[in-house]
Amino acid sequence: MLRSGLRLTSGLFVAQAAVSNHTGLVARAGLAMPAAPFGSAAWQLPALVAYLHRLHQDEEDPSPELWRAHTERQTGPVPRPHRRYQGNGLHDPDAVCVLDIQLGPRDEETGWPAADLAVIEQEAGACPFGRVTRRHGTETIAAYTAQELTAEHARLMDRARQHQDAYFVRLAGLAQRAADWADKVRAAAHADAVHVQAEKARARITG
User: Fold this and answer.
1) 74 contact partners, CB below 8 Å, separation of at least 6
2) Among 96, 100, 112, 147, which has the minimal tally of Cβ within 10 Å of its Cβ?
3) 46 alpha-carbon distance from chain centroid
4) What pLDDT does 104 receive?
5) Is the peptide bond before 64 cis (omega within 30 degrees of 0)?
C-alpha cells in the first residue's frame, strides 16, 4: 500500500473509482493526498464533475486510465490526489474522507456516463466513519457539489470576518466560482434528461 509517504496527523483523502465497461468488466483506480487543507468533498468533487462533463463533451466512456490522467493533472489552484493508492479507503483508519465512485458507460440517449457516488467522512475522534452521503447520476452529483461548495464559501467568509484575513476571502471566491460552474453542469445534465423524456413522450403520442 502506497501510504507511508502520505501519512500525516491530518489523515488522508482518498478518491477510489470502480469503472465498468459494456461487457461488465470492472477495473479500479485509487488516488490519495493529505486531507489538509483541501482533502474534503467540497474541494475535490469538482474534479469528478469536470471528468463527467469532459466525457460527455468528448463522447467517451470512462476508463481508469482517463480518470487517473484527469485527476493527476494539476490544472488549478486546488491540489488533487495524485499518489497511487492500492488500499481500500473504507477500511483505512488514516482515511478521513473517501470518495467512493462507480462509473459506467455513457447513456446512449443523454450522452452522460453512469455515475454513483458515496462520500464517507470520519468524524473527529470517531470510529468507524461517521457520515455517508450517496448520490446517483451526474445531475444530482453536480447539485451536491454546488451545495457543498456554497457551504464552504459561507464557512470561509465567516473565518474571513473573524480573522480579517484576505486569504479566506480569496478562497471563498474560488469556492463560489466552482459552485456556480457545478450548477451549470447540473443544469446541462437536467436539460438533456428533460429533452430525452420529451422525445419519448412525443414518440408515444405520434406512434
Assistant:
1) 80, 82
2) 147
3) 5
4) 96
5) no
Residue pLDDT, tens place only, 151-166? 999 999 999 999 999 9
16 has which bridge partners? Answer: 30, 100
Query: pLDDT value at position 3?
Result: 36
Predicted model pTM: 0.90
Amino acid of residue 74: Q
Closest CA to 42 of 156, 124, 159, 186: 156
Quote the crossing angle between the two packed helices 64-72 and 41-58, to the nearest 10°.
Answer: 130
CA–CA distance, 67 with 116 (Å, rounded to integer): 15
Cell numbers standing for residue 53: 462533463
- pLDDT for 106 equals 95
State the Cα–Cα distance between residues 135 and 128, nearest whole angstrom: 21
Q: What is the pLDDT of residue 204?
A: 80
Residues of the chain short of pLDDT 50, as ranges, are 1-8, 126
String of DSSP letters for the chain: -TTTTT--TT-EEEEEEEEE-TT--EEEEEEEEE-TTT-SHHHHHHHHHHHHHHHHHHT----HHHHHHHHHS--SSS----EE--S-GGG-TTEEEEEEEEEEEEPTTT-PEEEEEEEEEPPTT-SS--EEEEEESHHHHHHHHHHHHHHHHHHHHHHHHHHT-HHHHHHHHHHHHHHHHHHHHHHHHHHHHHHHHHHHHHHHHH-
